[in-house]
Amino acid sequence: MAALCESFTLCGLGPSGGVGLGGGLLALEPGPDPDHVLLTDRGRTATLFKVSDQKPLGCWSVKHGQIITCPVVCNFETHEYIAVHDDKVLRIWKNKDINLDKVFKATLSADVYRIHSLPNGGPVVLFKGGGVRTLDVLLEAPQQEIENIISDEVIKWSEAFMEGQQPVLIFATEKDGDFFVYVQKLKMNSLQKYKLEQQELLRPLHFTAYIKNQIITLLCLYSNDSVYKVLIPLQQNTEEEEQVLSKSLLLNLSVSGSVLKGTSFVVLDKDYIAVLGSLAASDEESKECLTIWNTKFQTLQTSKELPLGTSGQLWCYEEKFFLTHGKVLTVIMYKCETSSLAAAVGKLKDSQTPDVSSFVNWSTLEDEELVVSFQSQQSVALKSESRMTLRSKRSTVARVQPDTLSVGQLLLNLKDASITEFEDELRQLMSKAQTPDFQATIGCVVTALINRCKTNPKYYPQNLLLQIVQTRDLSYSLCPDLMAVALDKKDVRLLQVCLQRFPDIPEEITYACLKVFLSISEACLQSVDVDLESVICYIDIEFNNKEVKTEIVENGFSAELEQDICDTKTTKETCLMTDGELCPVGPQKAALLNAVLHSAYSETFLLPHLKNLPAQQAVLFLRYLYYLHVKCGEKINNTLPGIHSPTMDQVMDWMCLLLDAHFTVLVMLPEAKELLSNMHKFVRAQVRFYSELNKMEGSLQELQRLNQQKYPQTYSIEVLELI
Fold it and tell me: Looking at the chain, which terminus has fewer C-beta neighbours within 10 angstroms, N or C?
């Protein structure tokens, strides 16, 4: 029989819970110890918890502006943690590491869908295009080309197992309503593609699988509230392409007239599955609950109601269920005993059986009859040791790796070529078919262009550099001198594109860009082709005889910017005393500042640089941030319209940073007094407004409860007084 046991709260999920900021969980993965779990939130934080003590053992976050895009996993062989942020930036660290900016980093050439970590097989990386690599092979050449296998299909689910010493990965994809299953055997480099048998108006909602005796059992939860089973033998005839997989009904999720609308499910052992969903009868309100079903005898074994609601996610490790319940992460323990008919119908007496079947982790189930020789174990140990040694050296050779012999020789031969010949050869080099080190080759091309700019100050191929950055997936680490030269040339258009596309710009360079953007005059920016997509939907600008006139909320403060970098006359801004309807900067400068707001940063490293920002520039930037804050507050969803517009969180973070860096100076500046006062009034009004809403929360909940109890058959008007 199976039974649900005691439950407890592992942690909160709101702002005070220590896990994320209320955005919910992305995933939960096993930690390095059976009593540890890794929580990844839908943002930028991963937390390691000790389950028995309900306390966090470690918490790591990527920089502001970066997003963790797949679950953080533990490498069980090296006890390292692996994360991917912004789809293709890989991070690897250990427990002792605190700042993720200083840990091992590699920028990959393709977007990652998921990393699966196998206890005896190491981490396996699945890319969104269907390509698969082990972590060690990937780290040998992070910029290697990753094949695109699934073309227009979208990956919906994936899982990895160990069959003996062979890592096996399975993933399901969807295209135009058709579902496909791929099975990849990594050591044999074998890939099999199947198509799931389709039925009209039926589609799979969730998958899970386990492997045993060279057979993968794929379980699918379908839209008709039934679980189907699909058997996939590992030994297949490779001559057949896209074989159709037939399915058989395993379980109907209905009992005594009630139907369970499942959202997720897990396999407990060969006879039991757990399903999370909403159980409802025809004349009753649906209730979310966790259920355990006996697939052998088609019975609902036990259930637990979850009145506070769930996110629909369910994880299972070490005889414990993990699920969100309300605003907390709940752990529910369970036990599974040998399935029997008496247990299935509830007639089994409470007796202790010496051979109670313990929890089986089907994801990592191996063939018990396989005997591993001493030589194989020794080989694996040596490989693990060499892998750890190699990784410690990777960070020191990362910048040497991109330059290959053929590319290096070609660039050396072009050293003394004419400008036309030089650029033509580089264009031909970039137009060639992509090779495994193609991304590194592009980095070398950019480096060659930058080196030529340094040796010849009059040479600056702005259009070519802009074209490369816009059409190639580059990063700052591949061409670190590019932005330095653009800053020297005051090329604000190239700097804007780099800020939008590079995920790893150092804080020092971000600050330098901000200073240049604030110092350049509006008149000079009129002739610059700046991308205005982030501002055209919300900025209010009036033009009169080519002079930008802006209105701001400050009391008549008017300041000239620093000397124009183009040695042209500075355009004076006419600042009127209004309600802040118009922007304190022109559209070009606003678009450049938005690029800075979108860039990733670490507060620890950015704050010292911001303290060096001149006072007048700090005031101007703060005015623009306040303008954005007011604009966001005008919208019901606190977001600005347009493409790549700043978010409320980004605006608030930068306002806090700027106030922390310059608060003493701003308090002493007469021209900043009115600005600070308006900011204080605006924030205080918002706090008061939300405080009043919180007071009404209890009354609104009571009103909702009363409305649910009443079912008026005729039209009526009710007046309720809120006290």
Answer: C
Residues 527 and 630 in one domain: yes
Length of the chain: 723
Instruction: Say if 82 falls within a structural domain.
Output: no
In this structure, the answer to whether residues 488 and 517 fall within a common structural domain is no
| Bridge partners of residue 89, in order along the sequence | 85, 107
In sequence order, the 6+-apart residues with CB closer than 8 A to the CB of 132 are 124, 125, 126, 169, 184, 186
Other beta carbons within 10 Å of 543: 11
* Claim to verify: residue 434 and residue 513 sit in the same structural domain: no
Question: In this structure, are residues 513 and 608 in contact, taking their beta carbons and an 8 Å threshold?
Answer: no
Total Cβ atoms within 10 A of residue 151: 9
pLDDT at residue 342, rounded to an integer: 53
What is the count of structural domains for the chain? 2
More confident residue, 175 or 636: 175
What pairs with residue 181 in β-bridges?
172, 194
CB atoms within 10 A of CB 438: 17
Q: Which residue stretches of 538-614 are H helix?
A: 587-598, 603-610
How much helix, strand and coil, in percent to the nearest 5, is found in the chain? 30, 30, 40
- Among residues 480, 504, 528, the one where a domain terminates is 504
Can you give the residue range of the structural domain that contains 622? 506-540+581-668
pLDDT tens per residue across span 322-380? 999 988 899 999 988 765 555 555 544 443 333 322 233 333 333 332 223 323 333 33
The pair of structure tokens assigned to 86 is: 């912004």
Residues 589, 497, single domain; the answer is: no
Q: State which of 648, 668, 688 marks the end of a domain.
A: 668
pTM: 0.55
Question: Which residue, 429, 423, 451, is CA-closest to 442?
Answer: 429
pLDDT single digits (tens) 191-210: 899 999 988 888 999 999 99
**Residue 682 buriedness (CB in 10 A; 0-12 / 13-18 / 19+):** middle
